[in-house]
Each structure stands twice: as structure tokens, then as C-alpha cells.
Amino acid sequence: MSVPFYVSPEQLMRDRADFARKGIAKGRSAIALQYADGILFVAENRSPALHKVAEIYDRMAFAAVGRYNEFENLRIAGVRLADMRGYSYDRRDVTGRALANAYAQTLGAIFSSGGEKPLEVEILVAEVGSSSAEDQIYRLTYDGSIADVRGYAVMGGPAEQVADYVGEHYTDGISLAGALRLAVDALGHDGTDVRALTPDQLEVAVLDRTRSQVRKFKRMTEETLERILSESRPAEEPTGSEDAEDSGSAKAEDTTSASADDTAVAPPSDDVPVAPPENPDDDRPL
Known about the structure:
This protein is an alpha+beta fold. It has helices at residues 9-25, 68-88, 96-112, 159-169, 176-188, 222-232, 240-262; strands spanning 30-35, 38-44, 53-57, 60-66, 121-127, 136-140, 146-149, 152-155, 202-208, 217-219.
């Protein structure tokens, strides 16, 4: 009878963590940002049907990166849990903290189990409050760890580089247009080359506390994204060619004026009356 190889629990946990981290890093990043009127979600996603950001309940949203089939099962389980609690008790009893704790227990149990592989996912659970101080964002990792974050959260892909860019430019109380422009720029600074992302490459949604409806979740269309990004884009400076054309035009005008002023005047004859010469200092229409 063969004896199985012995692997220490510490080494086993390290191997499982490395496996999950490598799978998550293969995906594209997603960002959650608090702005003046709610919480903004921006994810790089080229698929119009497979969403990385979704609604969970009235004031709650879900965002995830990693394997789609795994975090989609988590999203469905969260929707069912929230609906059951709201139906059995009251809609106000459905909270983001309770849902985040349920997700943490599920992820932790799967990660510590030796019978199945860990889930290659990271998720965000957000709940918008009546004010920015009451907003809640919970970040959960593959091993069930949970963190209460403020301001912004980045996960998936080169998350550290994207988070560094957001941290350098983020300010409390930022507007929706400013937060969207910051998130798009941050997703483009995920490597050595800076990328310019277009609206069809993005998935954007908000939890807007100013909405009159009970449900605060709202997706943004490509037309809305294009309009907001164009309005928030800084004014373009004139290029070198335009400067050269303007300079050439000015020089041409100066040359024309000089040639007109320097033109010799024929000597007057005795028979034809001649008007007095014009004063070159007088203002003339251009």
C-alpha cells in the first residue's frame, strides 16, 4: 500500500492562494468609487451580455472579477438571500453587511476545504446610504477575507497599479463626471503603455441616492458615457501645425500691408486734381 506524500497545511494554503491569485490576475480590473451622490462602478468589459456589475437589492449592488461562472453563482445566491430576507421580515432588514458576511462564510469554507479548488473570484458588495458617510463598500477575496473600504476599491488584473493612480487623483465629494473620468483614466494606466478606453469597452453602473425610486441601481448606456466623457475631457491645446498656419497667415498679412504701403505713387499731373495722401496711422478695416 502506497503512502501519500505529506504536505504541510501552511504549504497547502499557500498553493491554493497562489492558484486563486493567478486566476484573478488574468482578468481585467474593476473599480468602485464613492462620488457626491452615490457609488460608481466601472469595469473593463467588452461583452454586452456577461455583466461584471449587477443589482442585488434596492440599495445594494454587486461587482466581481475572475471566473464568470463562479461569481455568477455567487450573485444569484445573493439575490435569493436578499429576496428571502426582505420577504420574510422587512426590506429594511436587507443590509450590505449581512450579505457580505454570508459571502465571506461561503468563500472561506470553499477555500479551506481540501476537496475542491478555491474560487478564482474577488467581489465587491456596496450599499448606498442617505449620505456619503453612510455608504458601505465591502471587498471580499477568494479566501473569505472581508474588508470595509472607504472612498474607492480596485480589484482584478494589475489592481495595485490602478489603485495607485486612483489614490493620487481621488478627492472626497468628487462629481460623477470627475469620478467617471478618473476611473476610465485609471483603467488605462494598468501597464507600461497608457490606453484610451472607449465606451464600448466599459461597463458602468451607479447606485444613485438622488433617485426617487426605491431601487437606486442604474446602468449607463454608451451614449450617456460618451456625453459625460466628452464634457469632462480637458480642452485641447492648438497643435504645432495650427500655430504654424496662424503664423504664416500673420506674416502674409504683414507682407501684403507692407507692399501696399511701399507702392510708389505716380507724380500728379497738372490737369487732374489729386486727393491728399492717406495717413498710414489711421485705423482701417481689415
